[in-house]
Amino acid sequence: MDSAPTALLVGKIMDILENEAYSIAAVRDEVDEIKQELVSMTSFLEDVDGKKTQTEAQKAWVTSVRDLTSDVEDIIDEFMYLMYEQQSRGRFARWIHRTIHIPKNLFYRRKIANKLQKITKMIKAIPERNKRYALDGVVGTSWDDISKWVKNQAVSSLFINEDELVGIDGKKQTLTAWLLNEEQHLTIVSVVGMRGSGKTTLVAKTFTNETIKRHFDSYAWIIVSQTYVIEDLFRSLIKELHQARNEDVPADLLSMGYRDLLQLLLNYLESKRYLVVLDDVWDIKLWREIRIALPDRQLGSRIMLTTRKEDIAFHCFGVESHVHCMQPLEKNDAWELFSRKSFSTFDGKCCPPELEKIAWELMEKCKGLPLAIIALGGLMSSKKSAAEWSKVYNGLNWHLTSHHLLEPVKSILLLSFNDLPYRLKHCFLYCSLFPEDYLIRRKRLIRLWIAEGFVEHARGVTPEQVADSYLTELVFRSMLQVVERNETGRPKSCQMHDLMRELALSTSEKEKFSVVYDGKEALEDIGARRLSIQTTDGGIKSCIGTSRPRSFLLFVTGIFSFSFSKSLPSGFKLLRVLDLEDAPIDKLPHNLVYLFNLRYLSLKGSQIKELPKAIGLLRNLLTLNIHNTKIQVLPRGISKLLNLRHLIMYRYTGEHMNFKTANGTRVPLNISKLKKLEVLSFVESEGNIIRLIGNMTQLTRIGIMNVKERDAMDLCDSIQKLKLLQYLALMVSDEEEFLDVNALSSPPPHLRRLTFAGKLQKVPPWFSSLQNLTCLYLHWTRLDEDLLPHIEALPCLGRLLLVNAYVGNELCFNRGFPKLTILELFNLPLLNKITIAEGVMKNLQLLTIAEALKSRCMELKALPQGFEYLSKLETLELLSVSMQLIESVQEGGVDHPKVKHINVITKYRSKCLIKAHLCSST
């Protein structure tokens, strides 16, 4: 595990050597030699990865490799900086520079070559030193000891007393109902959750219930774990099945091969209703291997499996299946469990008043994770004073990694971390740079990963798609927790569990991967490659000038005073990431434009008014985010950012119910030179910009403001050329201007999200062809034509938002809308009736009906007719609608029986803020 970040760093350096530095003749021999050494180092590190380092000698070895690879990275980056300086000059200036400075350049190249030679010698000296101190024989202990401990914990779950558990009664009833229902076909019941969430304990208490045992002819519990041999699983299954019925186990079981074992199982289960638990499933291939041994004789047999991976739990098994997702313990249940463990030796076995505040804060660190609550409670049971409790709270990171009572938590979390591929390990560690409980936006995270170089290149797949698959994998493995999903179920934001983050912070600092400064103590220069500042203390200037980070992230908390003064610290010269989102700054340092290595620059939410004229010097920049800054115009130099992929630059107006919700940014016409640009939002429509946008054929997302009627033909022509477009947002110049898109004969085939703001004379005829559309936002379109027949058959439409979009008095959902989960109706002034036919919008989960605060036209007096057909509805929001409608759904109201089973949110004549949907394309 210790070598994982180092292994990725080696791979990253090899990419640099092969793709850039290798072409430099002056150091070619040195590069070739060091590359071969790095290949060997990578192979060794991958072999070592997953082993638990025990000796100080091994720790020193890994540290040496890590430091050497960092030195190589510094040397290569410095050399590339020299090359950049030469290439950034004009042709004549380069000739003059070469003529005058040849001796200096030769000296510098020789210096680089000497450094590389020295590094190579040091790398070669490592195995020699190992032999000298007899380190080769020390290979470390594998993770088998932890895996064995996990298996023992699973077995012990079968013997836990019921009174030791909290918060499982309802969950047990759900599982029991699935096991005992009348379905005769084989059914799989999956229980999924992060490690330590109590899934094995829950299944164990269900499995051992006498009612369950009497229902089945035979039953077995087998632990699968990360590595298994299918023949051994068959033997365990046979043994468990026989012992459950007090039958003799076949004497020659150990000598049987695969065929005999399979035949024995099939014969034994031929006429039995059985229950088999597969505990701790890591890979879906297990089902492919074991399903043939578990026949479906339509006798009501059941298979239960526990897993930490969502993709396994939700796999299409080819039989009836149910999934139970483990949720954190409710606060009261968590407190009860924590109190049982922490205060069992206290008077009255309850929390003393003086400890209650700190005890709650410490318990909440566990975020409802039973394993963590039990372990932490056991640790605190010996702490009697508030000072002792505070000491643990403030040093939880150290206790988690060092205290034997928390070893179970550490081991469980490390087992999940250790199983990650090394690229995902880096991506996971990177998430710890965000503050505790921070909502990490998906798009921001994957763009940061790309900028860092974590994302591998794959032919035919964009880096964003690869990074998205990394995030999905971390979510499936329960390493990250999804907080918000979009209408298609895709994560929009996620969080790290507090204890996962503590572990990641500890690992990151030890590996010099990153360091987080929270102002609690002085920041030491450990040479970390990434620095995250998270403090309300403004006195951090001294700490940022001591290291040479590749990434600098600033998070504003409370009243924050921060400044780079006039220039960036000299150590920032090789930055790849500069994330100043929401930073209280209004000026940029003058030397920002010399960060040739910069891939990611975010000034989002800052007070910056303009970009440097020389912004074009940042030739490697991939992402530029100036959303919600005061920048209104981009300099002409922006066209020199030929590698730019994401340009995000809209500004909210603060008026969400009025026509104007956001402003774009004026751009130079030469922006069309940015052929790699994928995201462009939002630009002001000026001059020939609409016509030129058609040349930017890599665009997948675009937003255009102030569209004029006279631009209609150019607009449609440009949009038709954007074959990769997935997100399109258009806003006209004022609320009386018409948005004419009828000439668009063939819209982009992959269009997924569409936002129109402006009057429409009629529903565009091509709406019905948008087979991939998931979101449709119509804002102030004021259609008098019924929109619904044009979109009701769209197979993927998951979200429909109408803001002053329809001037009719009735909406009739007569058919279709099979995937619609969110329907939002805002400020439809004449609407007095909504009708929903049975079977329409059968998957709707959220329905919002709202009026503008200034509106006096609240015609809707009752719930939609057919509201009772919305069987999957979870939330109804009624915001500033008529009091008559609100009273009808309150207790005692005529419509209350229809809504009593769902979450109802009502606000009358109160400030209603609606999230601006024009920003959804970024």
From TrEMBL:
Keywords: Nucleotide-binding, Plant defense, Repeat. Residues 9-93 form the Disease resistance N-terminal domain. The keyword Nucleotide-binding applies. The keyword Lyase does not apply. Residues 433-504 form the Disease resistance protein winged helix domain. It holds the Pfam family Rx_N. Residues 171-344 form the NB-ARC domain. One of its GO terms (biological process) is defense response to other organism. It comes from Prunus avium. Residues 569-878 form the Disease resistance R13L4/SHOC-2-like LRR domain. One of its GO terms (molecular function) is ADP binding. InterPro entries: Apaf_helical (IPR042197), Disease_R_plants (IPR044974), LRR_dom_sf (IPR032675), LRR_R13L4/SHOC2-like (IPR055414), NB-ARC (IPR002182), P-loop_NTPase (IPR027417), RX-like_CC (IPR038005), Rx_N (IPR041118). This is Disease resistance protein RPM1-like.
